Amino acid sequence: MSSRITYTNARIFDGRRLLPDLSFTVADGRIAAIGGPIAASDQMRNLEGRFVLPGLLDIHMHAEELALAEEQLVLLPPAVQSIDDIKDLVAERCRTLAPGEWIIGLGFDEGKLQERRAPDRHDLDPVSPDNPVFLSRACGHVGTVNSVVLRALGMGRHTPDPAGGVLDRDADGEPTGVLRERATEPVYHLMPELSADEMGARLTRLAPRLLAHGITAVSELTARYVPDQPGRDSAALFHAARRDGFPLPVSLFYVWDQIKRNPKRPRPVGPFEDGVYLGGIKMLADGSITGRTAWVDPPFEPHANRSGDGGLALLSPAELLEAADVAASWGVQLAVHAIGNCAIEQVVSTLAPVRPWLSDRPSIRVEHGALATPTLLDTARRAGMAFVMQPIFLYAEIESFLTHLGEERTRSQYPVRTALETGVAVGLSSDAPATAWADPANPWLGLYQATTRRTHDGRTFGPNQRIDLMTALRLYTADAATIGGFPGGAIKTGAPADFVVLDTDIFRNPDTLRNVRVKATVVGGRVLYGHL
After folding, report:
1. What is the DSSP letter of 430?
2. Cα–Cα distance for residue pair 19/201, rounded to 1 Å
3. Model pLDDT for residues 168-202, shown as the tens digit of each residue
4. Region of residue 177 (phi > 0: left; psi between -120 and 50: alpha; otherwise: beta)
5. Rounded to whole angstroms, how far apart are CA atoms 332 and 39?
């Protein structure tokens, strides 16, 4: 049987433009030809006019956290509408566990809760007196623990706030159990770790969910590196997953705080090792808007007995320059999380004078850039930086954005069109699972929001920042590949045969983007989801 397959009658978006109806041929895992004569020995697949595009590349997500979420409490609508609903879920899980076993929940957003506040230890203690509980806010920058955890960590009235973190306190100065930014770090060290094999198995179970959305490669933006603990070594985890059948290439971005403690270059030692890339180093310059920890000026709107505050600055210029030196010495990217306008200004102004060290992709990436101004975008363009943005945030979390930013700043955030008009390189991604949506890795919701600027409840914010669908697809394919350093992102001769076939005509009506049906996802020429 021939190893060549020719797909006919396809409507193709090649990563840059729409092509007329034609055929393309796959051989040995790559695109062998587009159009042209068809060999008599080729296997034939008639796509019947269906739409074909390159596999989508999610160049900023947290696959490990997303895989763990499979067995965590999901604290999102429609199952969760109130703190009482959260308490009921925690109580139900307690009944299935022995005392001392952990309960972990993911995704609460006080903007979607009836009480319009985060749950605290006073809510959790009555329903979990013997089990440690950690509930992560949707953004991943804030979490709530019960008194069992506070006692285990020795956190009390006299515990100072850590550098770059905050313990929320009641009127008596006692911790409420709500921990912000680096105040959550001790909790993660306390929680039990899965083995590399167990984590690899969970990642393998995650793969079909990603493939079902047409995702064919991902970047892990919180890769871990603890050399003497395989369960905390992301390279070991993903290699275990690939042995189990995880088929997607992954690019690892190691967290700067761990690199400082373990300065030896982590795996993979080369740029590529059996589907695992060393993408770069990841830093956090601030927190999140919806968790009120992004570094902003003017301050956030007053809310829930809290005055307006300007969030948290988590880095110094010296640290940024130190990390850039390490990234340059390794020949990898530096990706810096910066959401608030003050954080973006710090990152761009500090790193703009640094000479780029990579020739095939941007040396420096600004992750998120929610409140980037035209001036900062232009400075970043001249310095060769890229921005990786997540339109799904505005789609899913509009309630909390309006509460904390007000309407004017909400309209202007995630200025994708302005960034493109400025000429800065832009990629789109999901940041999954760090958003308040039950299916946070769904790229089609981000594409819908980018092209309509509509939210999940039908409101429109910042229509002047809309981009057309062809541009939006480019930012998830060809441009994402350029920024992320992946070989895919295009349907062209010689490219990896990573592509998606849709049953939905997404160009006919933008509303269809919210309900896209993927007929098949192909990686390396193999149909890994659906059928053709």
Report:
1. -
2. 39
3. 999 999 999 999 999 999 999 999 988 888 888 99
4. left
5. 42
What whole-number distance in Å separates Cα of residue 463 and Cα of residue 396?
A: 17
Q: How many domains does the chain have?
A: 3
- Dihedral sign for Cα 373, 378, 379, 385, please: positive
Return contacts of 154-157, CB within 8 angstroms, 24+ apart: 155/186
The token duo for 288 is 């999140």
Structure-token pair, residue 12: 């193709």
Q: Domain of 403? A: 58-64+193-484
Q: Structure tokens of 384?
A: 């060769």
Residue 10: in which H helix or E strand, if any? strand 5-13
Same domain, 472 and 503: no
pLDDT, one tens digit per residue, over 376-430 is 999 999 999 999 999 999 999 999 999 999 999 999 999 999 999 999 999 999 9
Do 386 and 364 touch, CB atoms closer than 8 A? yes
Which domain CATH number covers 186?
3.10.310.70
DSSP 463: G
Structure tokens at 38: 């068809």
- What tokens does 110 get? 């006080």
> In terms of pTM, does the model score above 0.90?
yes
The helices-and-strands tally (H runs, E runs) of the chain is: 17, 23
